[in-house]
Amino acid sequence: MLDHPEDFGPETFSGNRGLDQEEPPIFEIGRPETTGVDMDEPPPVASRLGGLERKRPIGLPGLSEPEAMRHYVRLSRKNYSIDAGLYPLGSCTMKHNPRLNEKIARVEGFADVHPLQPQSTAPGALALMEELARWLLELTGMSTIALSPKAGAHGELCGLMAIKAALEARGEAATRKTILIPQSAHGTNPASAALLGFQARVIEAGADGVVSEEAAAAALGPDVAAIMLTNPNTCGLFERNVVGIARRVREAGGYFYCDGANFNAIAGVARPAEMGVDAMHLNLHKTFSTPHGGGGPGSGPVVLSERLAPFAPVPFLARDGETLRLVEQRQGTQSLGRLTAFHGQFGTFVRALAYILSHGSDGLAQASRDAVLSANYLRVALRDVMTQPFGDRACMHEVLFDDAFLEGTGVTTLDFAKAMIDEGYHPMTIYFPLVVHGAMLIEPTESESKRSLDLFVATMRALVASAKRGETRRFTGAPRYAPRRRLDEAAAARKPVLRWSAA
Amino acid sequence: MRYLPLTQEDRAQMRAAIGVSDVDALYADVPADLRLDGPLDLPRGKSEIEVERLLGAMAQRNLSASRAPFFVGAGAYKHHIPASVDHLIQRSEFLTSYTPYQPEISQGTLQYLFEFQTQVAMLTGMEIANASMYDGSTACAEAALMAHRITKRRKAVLSGGLHPHYAEVLRTISHFASDEVVSLAPDVLAHEDLAATIDESVSCLVVQTPDVFGNLRDLTPLAEACHRHGALLIAVFTEAVSLGLVTPPGEMGADIVVGEGQSLGNPLSFGGPYLGLFATRLSYLRQTPGRLCGETVDADGRRGYVATLSAREQHIRRDKATSNICTNSNLCALAFSIHLSLLGEAGLRRLARVNHANAVDLAERLARIPGVETLNESFFNEFTLRLPCDAARLVENMAEAGVLAGVPVSRLLPDAGLDDLLLVASTEVNTPQDREAFVAALRGAL
Known about the structure:
The structure holds two protein chains of two kinds.
Chain A: H1 65-76, H2 99-105, H3 108-111, H4 123-140, E1 144-146, H5 152-170, E2 178-182, H6 188-195, E3 199-203, H7 213-219, E4 224-230, H8 242-251, E5 255-259, E6 279-281, E7 302-304, E8 316-320, E9 323-327, H9 346-382, E10 399-401, H10 413-422, E11 429-430, E12 440-442, H11 450-468, H12 472-476, H13 489-494
Parallel strand pairs in A: 2-3, 2-4, 4-5, 5-6
Antiparallel strand pairs in A: 1-7, 6-7, 8-9, 10-12, 11-12
Chain B: H1 8-18, H2 48-60, H3 83-89, H4 92-95, H5 107-124, E1 128-129, H6 136-151, E2 155-158, H7 164-176, E3 180-183, E4 204-208, H8 220-228, E5 232-237, E6 256-260, E7 276-280, E8 293-297, E9 303-307, H9 314-317, H10 330-367, E10 373-374, E11 382-386, H11 391-400, E12 407-408, H12 409-412, E13 421-425, H13 432-445
Parallel strand pairs in B: 2-3, 2-4, 4-5, 5-6
Antiparallel strand pairs in B: 1-7, 6-7, 8-9, 10-11, 11-13, 12-13
Helix pairs in contact in B: 3-10, 5-10, 6-7, 10-13
């Protein structure tokens, strides 16, 4: 065994630790006069800037190409990624991102096409959107689709706007101001509702983790615009009373918004239309494998029922015989308006369609079944050492544990998650959903081999045993083997430093 | 299926471990009549080569910007992207990571966002910037909502030079949020009297520069007018490269600066994904929407970065959040930041000079064509032409002749009676031959 570094001075002189290399911000490396882009100076012209020339320096540093490569490659190595390991973030669907999708999205005929060049010069782009729409409508059974929303939360906004537009058309927008939302919902649900002037009212799920028809019925009234239900929900359970709830909501004059974040459990297995859904967003960056990119770009197309279809936002596709065109103006329609400039996240449409065509209808259903099988495999392999809040029952594509099994160990859910980092795993989603104490929501997706699942189980079991043996410092001091140890988030919030400045 | 690692034997073993004979038993909570009894009426899975053929054939039907002299702008611009940018953003660790919820193993993402925020703040002349929004248009709408929260007023005034899509996005959300919007008439020549529209009821004035017709606008008197009445000035741009050459909105008194960042690092991609830039004053920090990254230290005292001030955000505040945004445009922000790091100050300024020079050259050539008039007193790399004919028809005819000539104003404003106007952009990708081809095709089409 080697001497402890403290016995002979600093850990290392450079601050690096082997492959883990320190990298300062670009502002400490680059210089304003350096550039990694060669370009000839243009011939002098008579300025047409109307006297608004920039007069002061900007202060931006420049890097030569080798410096830039080294900077960003070093930064990249400080990130965990799906390509490097299991990334079991519940409700995030961190599945494999096929590189075929990336290749096709970069084909010149897709990547290098302008959204406002004549539509007659981009028929292939419109055909791709129509083909993606056809698949998503068939998979959901719904009537129409709005492709343009840019992420799940943007899709929620779109769906709720369609509902409000429908209420306006009925003359009930002023009276129906309440949206029913279970406590387990994503934070975006109440935030989207509030943004549009709705009041979010919480409905309680039962002891079995799902909303009962009676609870929904009791909350309904002439003030209710809609219910927002995530199905499968964020406890990893299918809302099995969904059909009855939807019927009650409809009878009471409301609409049913379904948060489709967890569609990966049921794609190709069951269809939202049959559940009575009026609007639902699909996260192409979850279910349909477009890369999360460290937090975006996402893509959140919204499928709509027949009674909301007339209110879909512009642009939408229209077909006149052989000719496909994008309707870009709302005039002369009942459209709710426009969610974004141009036509939505086209680059993610290409990737999602490549994924869908690769799987086909058979492969998509198999992927859903594998995702559910894998989550249940983890549930069963861990249930004797971890604790399930809603009893021992089958889950959908994610399995939820609470922190009861850690009681008396001095280890919190956060500590446990940080110890997983030292073991080479990205932690699961923690402290969400809010309805469960110290929640740990594990979503393995269909992308893991059985060997990978078995290794994960062995590690989790070993960690639980360690916590129960009282090896608390393993957890409270974790992580030790990450590029950084625990960061002082309180200090960051108390005295925010949001941009670099010279010391 | 090549993306599914489980073998039939694995599945059988896993079912046995769970104690079910069929996966369908795990779907017991899904009522039987909801379950599909077979595959949907859609094609079965395809190999890589088949998918490439099928989608490749669709791509072939589009006329790409590289295959034609290209002058289309109006909010999205074709610029040259250094090869290293696309290589770097495809690093697995950037491409396939999630939102940096676990900062100890997300320092790569957090540090580049911190650098991005600094670059955007510098470029716009503002104190702080967030870690990006979906795109310029949604950033613009979020800015108006933020102004309403700050001023406790609910009326936005939109300049007639604001991109019509941006205006429509803002009108849409305002309608459903019961906020008031006053949209001024399309203002081709930048002659509108915006200061006269501001009074004590106005929350914010939204002004774009360069505006959608290409005009550069001096914001200083508008900022003064806004501040006199307790309103905020929201400055919008859709061409980030312009900031290399023109006075940034922050130096003209803007309170919130929003814009489209696609021009740096991001391909046209038929309209998305792009990235919204959002910068403001430090005093408005707690009303700022979206993710923010901040510097801190770890348990060993080493410098590190975290997502911070999340008490503003939906996952904490739920219905009291400043915005419902969750996902932003991280990877697009990374591409923007790498491209800008490669350019540096010297490179960005030169790039902007080349853009301006090319546009000036094109404007001069076009002005020599009888019946064609350039309307702008000032512009950066895009300007408005008045034609002696319908611009949309002309653009179609020129496309058939192999030139993508620009955006007819009627495409954005069909009912404004501006059918003879054409927006023309020229960036560094245009050669003198391209510009001559434009002139020749235009003469031929008239």
